[in-house]
Design a protein that fits this description.
It is a single chain. The two termini are 34 Å apart. By secondary structure, the chain is an alpha/beta fold. Strands 7-1-2-8-9-10-11-12-13 form a nine-stranded mixed β-sheet. β11, α9 and β12 form a beta-alpha-beta unit. Helices cover 32% and strands 21% of the residues. Bound molecules: iron/sulfur cluster (2 copies).
Amino acid sequence: MAIDSTGIVLEIQRMSTEDGPGIRTTVFMKGCPLKCVWCHNPESINPKPQVQWIGARCIGCKTCVQACPNGALTFDDGIHINRTVCKGCGRCTEVCPSTAMELLGKQWSADALVQELLKDSAYFGTSGGGVTISGGESTFQAHFVKKVLVELKHHGIHTAIDTCGICNQHTLDMLLPHVDLVLYDLKEMDPLKHQQFTGKSNYRVLNNIKYILSFMKEHLFPREVWIRTPLIPGKTARDENIVAIAHEINNLLSINPKVITRWDLCAFNNLCKDKYTRLGLEWELAHTPLLTKEELSHFEALAKQHCNNPAIVKTSGSTRIEDDEAPVTKPKKKLGC
Ligand code: SF4
Ligand code: SF4
């Protein structure tokens, strides 16, 4: 089988209402070129399969320790994974009697994945939904993703890619003809801060969104772009950043006025705290509080004030619990946005 006929998929999430119009099935691919400090899916950054240990499920039998062919596991107060020698083979997950060892990332053939996604066609048809390829980064395994998108379009399925904008233009040329909607992250306009928060400058991000809009003007496809901005307290959630992104969107609207149909301000959430722990990682934002409702409203008003098309501004995500108010929580969503 050709190497690009298979891809590593982290998760298939059904019934999503966050990643495009209608009811969608979102495919989270493994691999991302960025390391955003607020990343909500840290298990998606590494392109290879990884194992994680869920302590609450472990019965301490040590079967995994004996089964590991690479001596990567030890047990004292719990299982410790030596990630420098773990090869992600998944043997430990196969022998664990209590599902305490989990493999993150599974190899799929493009054909098998498409067949799996087509099981949800009835939902797509009735809701105006479809399939969104997310991650990680949707363009990271581009040849595989193209095969999946082409097949989905043959079956008349609405397709979306969710991208951080870090890829080359050849990759965009390859994918865009098979995509209805692009979910595009504009996280931070200051190049140095973008580098500091994500590990890379925003130079390519800003060039690629212009390229996508020019491509759309010429080919009339993809049909729509939704811009997504994560509102991270102490990081991207600053007045000057939101105003600068609004001005950038105004410039983009002047290239191709009708195709940017939505600008999502995605409020920070910290539901992913345990994921970092399971991967043996420290998370800088583990104790960062959510935005208050007032702060979220403030950024929404600011965005509407400075965007030439305020109707496209939307907000999503959780805000801080105050008094006896119930939290507004959303299901898994890449917080790239
Ligand atoms: S095999 Fe599973 S239950 Fe047994 S020690 Fe390993 S992780 Fe724990
Ligand atoms: S994935 Fe393979 S190499 Fe890694 S700990 Fe499990 S058995 Fe060992």
